[in-house]
Design goal:
The complex is a heterodimer of chains A (about 625) and B (about 900). By secondary structure, chain A is of the alpha/beta class. Helices cover about 40% and strands about 20% of the residues of chain A. The longest helix of chain A has 28 residues. In chain B, a hairpin with a 6-residue loop joins strand 16 and strand 17. In chain B, helix 9 packs across helix 10, helix 16 crosses helix 27 and helix 30 crosses helix 32. With about 900 residues, chain B is an alpha/beta fold. The chains are: A alpha/beta (about 625), B alpha/beta (about 900). Strand 1 of chain A pairs antiparallel with strand 11 of chain B, so a sheet runs across the interface. Chain A: Keywords: Nucleus.
Chain lengths: ~625, ~900
């Protein structure tokens, strides 16, 4: 039974015991980390740890071990704290050494003059739940958790006395509640679903958070933000990393009190306090009930955010991969058929969409990102078709966001994160996304009109994102470049005004009289198990290795030279770039980790088809550039 | 630490001998931890007996004969003149060291000024290292040698002597700091500075710590480790020296020493707990400054009963409130009179890590800095600065509040409660102004365990000021480790270093070897030459390059690469930049109403490269600002009351698309890109990036691209140089290598130039101008830099010639003749075109003459006639040009649609 684990319920006790044993030998710190790492390595053990993502904060015991799946949104300045301090027991007058690590607040009676005080350094990261996480991913994570949570109001006395059945009830309750959500994926109001998704329990804390800006990158996001105190390996973390953090939860009310007690007029006059403006106070010391503190013991970088895949790169993952590889081709065919239906019978567009969904920036050569594959689906039917399309994409990928490029949003929305020097924090923008997030740009929403300067900046930022896979964060005195890895899909009527790696004009084969109904039926027709297979497929195909043999290299080179021979204007270096990416993705989509001659010919073939289609479009419209 | 009350008689700071009530003070609080009885005589030992008594600062103490009463211990009055604290550096420059009645001149006559920048001056006692009973009987001299300030190994006497010796003897003949301009380098540097102080009257002595280090490493170590103790000692030393030398000079206050450039310069990221209380120099960018904060230095208390008043010095932000009036012995009768208290200026400044020394993918750190007195308002947001200061920890304010609430009504704290080392910071101003009682919070029995840290500034040094106005550029000299230099030199000694480097440049971009070589030379730049004596000013050392060609030939990628490679690169797009954005603009600060000059991309990339994409899409007015930048390397601004000339020694790397979006091989460069030739001629190299359309090229290209996709990271690294190495290589060459032409090379250059002119003159064309010769020189110098050679040799000239010719061949080829014609670039028209124009005009004249006496002709008819007559096709443009040429000859006039003969 997981409930018997002290290391989950009272991790501080474990830490303190180790500290006491150590006799101030500094090695104890490493020992603590090793211990927790070891505990978490045990099979299944990590699923016993309750997760901040799906358990509401007031259900969690303070000072217990919790995990949090999150994105590092901001990094605050390092702070010095009392690593070891001495307290004086008022009754016995005896001095006791205490450990201040993994805690926000010291015990009473600190002897500030003690020579034994050790000052140490730690850093605070502001972490938010992974932006744009799809509802299905959240649910799936929630279901897989085996952690038992009890309403915290009763956590002190009756934990052990509770009958087993009751306990069990508590556990299954949330799952039952969720069940209605899991099924009706296409029942027409998945918009509502999206906002409700983080399970009905979490609404309580997020409601009161409305007056406090939790700085989520995307509007309408919910969930807890967290201040993570990091003690080790500060340099290994980067902004926008996605991590699963195991740490000690601290929601000491003192933290809140300290923050609230300040009278703003007092702040103005008070020289010490003036180090921090009220805004800064609010950003850096929000009430712990809304933004809990988490003292990191162990962090696991998330390679992907798909709950259906084994998370750690262990043996069972490779076993999983090899077992799935067998199925790969068949799943691909099914997915292709599904996407073809969704794209109104256009098989070529479906092929490209599939390639787009598994694309991934796998490396960078100086400034050039390799492997990105921005797709522009032009000729999309109007009237909420794109919205439906997005919902379908959202069902397939773990993280996604639809940016409706209306004139108003482009002019008013903040896409690029900006440093707010008054509050001393990085104000998030919609382009601060985790790796491999699908960004769905809906250009069909764009109407004629004037873009103001912020609109132009936003468009430029999108252009930069697409061509260089980087976002220039605005630090007001200078800009800082943050590389990213975001799959951008642009839907538009004509050719998009944004650059793209590849444009596919949609050629609907069927024209259903009622688009809504048509798409809903397609969607309904898929079983959850089927969809789950697609999800695994898409995430897995992205992670496969890939290489090109010398022989094929030669063939590709010859091919290129031949193509140029016929008509040098028609094939440029750019085209070769694209075809190489297409060939790569095509091979990966079939589960092949090397490029074969066939694969290359296929890539060439579909690219030819696509090009002839664009040319057709050009001659049809005549005036298109 | 034990309670200070346990050491009576330690301090005595005035000559009042009013009977004392034993009572603790802020001063005494830190005493007595270890001091043995022998300590009490320390005053006599450590000070030189003839130190003049300290005067009071005028206007503070005159009306108060009996004010100085904070330490009321019963030390015998006869000791007072040689009292411990008088000579202790720790007392020096604080109000308590003032003693009335000395005439104003000399050390004594000049008021000392508090040094809040040293923050919590640790008024620690000196400790006899071998403290035992013998100490008392030891001779003064011997004892003096042994005494150190408690907690340190600093002996005041020795330290002072050492510093005076340093000031008197230090000579730095190799100095090239601009601050030392005008000083005789072979004379003791700091003595000259003192002389300057006596003339100028600004009592601040900036001391370069590296000078101290080279002179006396031990002193330097002490300075770094115990700045709070050592700097006051320095102050004392310098004042003694100064007034000895210039006894008559009158200064506003005593000279303060401001050390800077502590070698422990570090970036903010590497600050760690060990640095607390040490002197450090960090660099960063100011992001926010607070308003001025008055900080109380001395509190003034008056007795409500008998109007007796007393002053209490603020110690580490705390005021020890006298509980009992000494005059009438009433308890708790003293009230603070805040408008008679003394305040000093203080400003909070937030400094952010400069973007250059930040690891990728992390956000910059910020640090809080306090500036005091005249350092207030010295910097503004956006400035890049080097700060020398000490890192101090602050406990969370809450902790002090807890104590306050327990003990006092206000926040006056008895020193027993807090030991001196804890550096508790009490927010006293608010209490003084507003007297808000602190609520005690019953829940708050625990405290947050986090310290807040800040840095007290001792010295600011702006790093970008020089960049804008000054001449030398070694402020940002990068320091290279020995090994790194070795690696770079090794690389330089390879014969194919030039090719290696150029192929390492933007490896993802295929071929264009010559263009890469050109850009490589641009990165290195020529040697800066100064002809200002002969009236020509500075000679441009920067190489400007224009890339033009078909869209999609990775021009932008090349620009992006260069922008990422150089430390001071700027990237702009022609479409998106205005003239103002490129140069500079004047802005009115909304708060201060002050005019502020905001610099644009060109100025920001001073000593760097400004990459301008979409050069052709730039508006004409924007482009016109480039004229000055690209030749004179300066930017003149005259607007809104600011007239100045900024340095913009930037290389321009521009990319332009042809007008017809596709390069028309039948047209000249000028016609293809439609740029004013005045601007074009300022580019040293103009490269065409065209699709060569040739099979071998295609094959290589395909190979390159495919390799890009399948080669692993390691393979790539094997093949190419690391970007970091390349960066260092360039930085090293730019700072340390200044090649000069040798005899042979100058001969070669002359020949090359003459040859270039000859080629043209043979066909009646001029193919080279002096500007091209200058370009050649620059390129040759840059090539010598690539080789790490101090001499420009013939091979450099050869390569420069070759590159120049290649570039010319591509861009200045007359499409009609196929010959290189530099006049395309200088006049915008090739010689054949000019010849052609003349021919048409002649033909037209002939035709009109043949028509006989017709004073007026129809325009259209004339045009048709001419076309009929001529063999070659004549366009309307050509016809009009011919008419204009004839009109210039005063042969005819064109009015509307008629042509009249004159």
């Amino acid at each position: 039974m997981p409930s018997s684990h002290d290391w989950i319920n009272k991790p501080l006790g474990v830490v303190e015991a180790m500290f006491a044993q150590s006799n101030s030998n500094p090695e104890w710190e490493a020992k603590v980390l090793e211990y927790f790492k070891g505990q978490l390595k045990e099979k299944e053990s990590h699923s016993w740890v309750p997760s901040l993502n799906d358990v509401p904060l007031h259900y969690l015991k303070p000072n217990s071990l919790v995990k949090f799946r999150c994105l590092v949104q901001d990094m605050f300045d390092p702070e010095f704290y009392m690593g070891v301090y001495e307290t004086v027991d008022p009754s016995t007058k005896a001095n006791v050494l205490r450990c201040g690590k993994y805690k926000d607040v010291t015990e009473c009676g600190v002897d500030l003059n003690s020579r034994n005080t050790v000052t140490a350094e730690r850093q605070t990261f502001y972490c938010v739940p992974i932006p744009g996480e799809s509802p299905w991913a959240k649910e799936s994570y929630g279901c897989s958790s085996q952690a038992r949570v009890v309403p915290s109001t009763s956590y002190v006395p009756s934990r052990q006395k509770r009958s087993y059945e009751e306990d069990d009830d508590m556990d299954t309750q949330p799952q039952k509640q969720r069940e209605p959500h899991t099924e009706p994926h296409g029942n027409g109001d998945s918009k509502r679903q999206e906002t409700e998704a983080p399970s009905s329990q979490t609404t309580a804390p997020s409601d009161c958070s409305s007056h406090l800006d939790l700085n989520f990158p995307l509007p309408g996001e919910r969930g807890p933000a967290c201040l993570v105190k990091v003690y080790e390996g500060l340099d290994s973390f980067k902004l926008n990393d996605t991590l699963e953090i195991y740490g000690i939860l601290s929601v000491n009310p003192v933290l809140t009190v300290l923050g609230e007690e300040k009278d703003p007029s007092l702040l103005l006059l008070n020289p010490t306090e003036s180090m921090e403006t009220p805004e800064e106070q609010r950003a850096h010391d929000p009430p712990a009930s809304l933004v809990p503190r988490l003292h990191m013991l162990y962090a696991r970088p998330l390679q992907h955010n798909n709950p259906l895949l084994p998370s750690a790169p262990t043996e069972d993952q490779s076993a999983f991969v090899s077992s799935f590889l067998v199925e790969m081709a068949s799943v691909r065919a099914e997915l292709l058929a599904y996407l073809t239906h969704v794209l109104l019978g256009d098989g070529l567009a479906a092929e490209y969409l599939l390639l787009h969904l598994i694309s991934n920036v796998y490396t960078r050569r100086d400034v050039l990102p390799l492997g990105k594959f921005t797709l522009n689906l032009s000729g999309c039917p109007l009237n909420s078709y794109t919205e439906r399309l997005y919902q379908i994409v959202q069902q397939l990928v773990p993280c996604s966001y639809r940016l409706s490029m209306s004139l108003h949003t482009m002019n008013s929305m903040r896409l690029v994160p900006k440093k707010d020097y008054v509050a001393n924090r990085l104000v998030s923008g919609a382009l601060q996304l985790a790796r491999n997030t699908s960004l769905f740009l809906d250009e069909t929403q764009l109407e004629q009109g004037q873009l103001d300067s912020s609109g132009v900046r936003n468009i430029t930022a999108l252009g930069n994102l697409i061509s260089w896979q980087k976002v220039d964060y605005d630090f007001s005195y200078h800009q800082m470049e943050f590389p990213c890895n975001i799959n951008v899909l642009v839907t538009s009527e004509g050719r998009s005004l944004l650059p793209s790696d590849c444009q596919v004009p949609l050629q609907p084969q069927v024209t259903p009289p009622n688009m809504e109904e048509y798409l809903t039926t397609i969607h309904m027709a898929q079983f959850t198990s089927q969809i789950n297979k697609f999800r695994v497929y898409l995430s897995l195909a992205r992670t496969l290795d890939y290489s090109i043999s010398d022989e094929v290299t030669k063939a590709v080179e010859d091919d290129f030279v031949d193509m140029r021979k016929d008509d040098p204007q028609s094939v440029t270096a750019e085209d070769l770039h694209r075809m190489l990416v297409v060939a790569r993705l095509l091979s990966l989509s079939l589960g092949q980790t090397t490029l074969s001659r066939d694969g290359w010919m296929r890539a060439k073939h579909i690219d030819m088809l696509r090009r002839s289609r664009t040319e057709q479009q050009k001659s049809l419209n005549g005036n298109e550039p | 630490m034990s309670s200070p009350t346990s050491t009576p008689g330690r301090r005595k700071r005035n000559r009042d001998d009013i009977p004392a009530t034993p009572k603790s003070t802020a001063k005494g609080s830190d005493d007595g931890l270890v001091s043995p009885p022998s300590q009490r005589r320390r005053g006599q030992d450590s000070s030189n007996g003839d130190l003049p008594a300290m005067p009071t600062s005028p206007g503070t103490d005159i009306a108060s004969p009996a004010v100085h009463d904070t330490s009321l211990f019963s030390s015998p009055p006869q000791l007072y003149s040689l009292e411990v604290d008088m000579s202790s550096p720790l007392m020096y420059g604080t109000p308590s060291s003032r003693v009335e009645g000395t005439p104003r001149s000399g050390v004594g006559g000049t008021p000392a000024r508090q040094r809040p920048d040293l923050g919590s001056i640790r008024k620690a006692p000196q400790v006899d290292l071998h403290s035992d009973a013998d100490g008392a009987v030891a001779s003064e001299q011997a004892l003096g040698q042994k005494l150190v300030i408690w907690g340190t190994d600093v002996n005041v006497g020795t330290c002072k002597e050492k510093f005076q010796r340093f000031l008197q003897r230090f000579i730095d003949p190799a100095s090239n700091e601009d601050e030392n301009a005008g000083l005789d380098l072979n004379e003791p540097l700091y003595m000259q500075k003192l002389e300057e102080i006596s003339v100028v009257g600004e009592p601040v002595l900036n001391v370069n710590c590296s000078h101290v280090q080279s002179f006396d490493a031990d002193l330097y170590r002490q300075l770094i480790s115990y700045p709070q103790e050592v700097i006051p000692t320095f102050d004392m030393a310098v004042n003694e020296l100064f007034f000895e030398r210039f006894p008559d000079s009158i200064l506003e206050h005593q000279i303060q020493v401001r050390p800077y450039n502590a070698l422990k310069t570090r970036n903010m990221r590497s600050l760690n707990p060990e640095d607390i209380d040490q002197m450090i120099t960090i660099s960063g960018m100011v992001i926010r400054t607070s308003q001025l904060i008055p900080e109380m230095q001395e509190a003034f208390f008056q007795c409500q009963v008998c109007a007796f008043f007393t002053r209490v010095e603020v110690d580490r932000g705390r005021i020890a409130e006298p509980a009992v009036c000494r005059n009438c012995n009433t308890i708790h009768s003293l009230a603070l009179i805040h408008n008679r208290s003394a305040f000093s200026d203080k400003q909070m400044i937030k400094v952010q890590e400069s973007p250059d020394d930040m690891p990728a993918g992390q956000t910059p750190h910020t640090t809080i800095v306090y500036a005091h007195n005249d350092l207030v308002d010295k910097v503004q947001p956006g400035d890049r600065i080097n700060i020398t200061g000490e890192l101090l920890p602050l406990f969370p304010p809450n902790i002090t509040m807890v104590i306050m609430a327990k003990q006092f009504y206000f926040c006056f704290i008895r020193p027993e409660d807090i030991s001196p080392k804890s550096k508790v910071f009490v927010p006293m101003c608010s209490c003084i102004y507003r007297a808000v009682p602190m609520r005690e919070n019953p829940r708050q029995s625990n405290v947050k365990s986090v310290y807040k840290t800040h840095i007290d500034v001792i010295h600011f040094r702006k790093t970008d000021e020089k960049r804008l106005h000054g001449l030398d550029e070694d402020s940002d000299q990068k320091l290279f480790t020995e090994e790194r230099v070795q690696i770079l030199k090794e690389l330089a000694s390879k014969p194919d270093v030039y090719d290696r480097l150029s192929s390492a440049l933007a490896p993802s971009i295929y071929e264009h070897e010559d263009i890469k070589k050109g850009i490589l030379l641009q990165l290195f730049g020529g040697t800066r030459k100064d002809f200002s004596q002969t009236g020509r000013g500075n000679f441009r050392a920067e190489v400007n390059i224009l890339l033009c060609g078909d869209p999609g030939t990775s021009k932008s990628q090349l620009l992006q690469y260069v922008f990422n490679l150089v430390p001071r690169g700027q990237y702009t797009s022609g479409k998106g930049s205005s003239a103002v954005g490129l140069t500079a603009y004047v802005m009115k600060d909304p708060e201060t109403k002050q005019l502020v000059l905001q610099t644009g991309a060109l100025v920001l990339s001073d000593n760097g490269i400004c990459c301008i994409d979409e050069f052709d899409k730039m508006s004409d007015s924007t482009r016109s600002v480039l004229h000055e930048v690209m030749e004179q390397q300066t930017l003149s601004i005259a607007k809104a009351g600011i007239i100045c000339q900024l340095n913009a020694r930037t290389s321009v790397l521009a990319a332009a698309n042809p007008v017809e979006s596709q390069w028309n091989p039948k047209k000249t460069t000028i016609e293809n890109i439609q740029l004013p030739h005045t601007l074009l001629s300022r580019f040293d190299l103009i490269f065409l990036m065209l699709d060569p359309q040739d099979e071998a090229y295609d094959r290589r290209l395909a190979h390159h691209l495919v390799a890009l996709y399948y080669q692993s990271e390691e393979q790539i690294e094997e093949e190419f140089l690391d970007m970091a190495v390349l960066k260092d290589y360039i930085a090293y060459a730019r700072t340390y290598i200044n090649p000069r032409l040798n005899e042979e090379a100058s001969q070669a250059l002359i020949e090359a130039y003459v040859d270039m002119r000859k080629i043209g003159s043979g066909r009646g064309m001029v193919s080279a101008y002096p500007r091209q010769l200058e370009s050649l020189i620059r390129l040759a110098e840059a090539h010598a830099k690539v080789r790490f050679s101090d001499k420009v040799e013939t091979i450099d000239v050869e390569e420069a010639k070759r590159l120049h010719r290649e570039a010319l061949k591509q861009s200045a080829t007359d499409p009609r003749t196929g010959f290189v014609d530099i006049s395309i670039l200088t006049t915008g028209m090739s010689a054949t075109a000019r010849k052609r124009k003349e021919e048409v005009a002649r033909a037209l004249k002939k035709m009109i003459q043949s028509k006989g006496k017709t004073p007026a002709m129809k325009y259209q008819q004339l045009f048709d006639d001419l076309r009929g007559q001529s063999e070659a096709a004549i366009t309307k443009d050509m016809f009009e040009e011919a008419l204009r040429a004839l009109a210039d000859e005063d042969y005819l006039t064109v009015t509307g649609k008629t042509v009249r003969l004159l």
